[in-house]
Please model this.
Amino acid sequence: MIILTNRAGSSSAPFMILLLTSISTVFGCGAIPGGQTSTRTFTASGPSNLPVIAVYTDNNAAFALIPGIATGKDAVQAFAQRFAMQTVIDVLEIEGRRALLPDFVISNILGQLQVSTTYEPLLCKDLKRPEIPQIAMESCIIVGSTVTGICPGAGRNMMPCQMVARAIDGKHLSLSGTLTTTNIIMANWSRSMWQNVVDRALRLLRSGPFGSHLYTSPTWNQEYGFLTNVFHSATTKAGISIPQSNPTRDANSTISTYNAEQREQ
Model:
């Protein structure tokens, strides 16, 4: 579990301008008496592929060949935390200013919000040469900067990985979390109000929710290209530097495979 706390901790008020305006009239309002909280859960599911930055490996050779691949599970989860946090911050600031709220009011409201997220990264181990048609052990299939599937390994099956590949487990394709507030007004929002908040936040998270490969993967550019600027703006503000993939290699669809381990939650 990753706790996302910050002025912009999370997501609620900004998407509903009228509610934000009402909150501003009470100066951001106070905390709920007795330290009570109101919590809503959400799940963001992405497409069937993963950017390499959403997986990790402990194979040193992979770092030089696959830009952006993480060095450990914690690194991926930390990136997810920063990216989700900054995405929410950006959305809240935009909507708060659209409601003509002064910055200190927005800050007061956001100071009473918290987001926690859970993400299970995919582990890719042991670098294998792209030209090897069969892999003895279960492997990730990486095309350019995108993990496209899992090769079950050759074993007794002599078919190439691409012909027997299976889809990535759904647990690696979703980000779940909770929105919690101690703000007395937001805590009493109706279910539909909270749902509007969650839906708006998910629009920015659903398509990645990570992905330096938004720049280079044709499929992602066509389907989620509008998020490229949002992603790079968010990562820059969050102090994240993402190595870019080799466009030539991506264009040629060079395939690299890694031994993969999919751990049960």
In short: Residues 1-32, 208-265 have pLDDT under 50 and may be disordered. The longest strand covers residues 38-45. Strands lie at 2-4, 38-45, 50-51, 55-56, 113-118, 122-128, 139-143, 146-151, 174-181, 255-261.
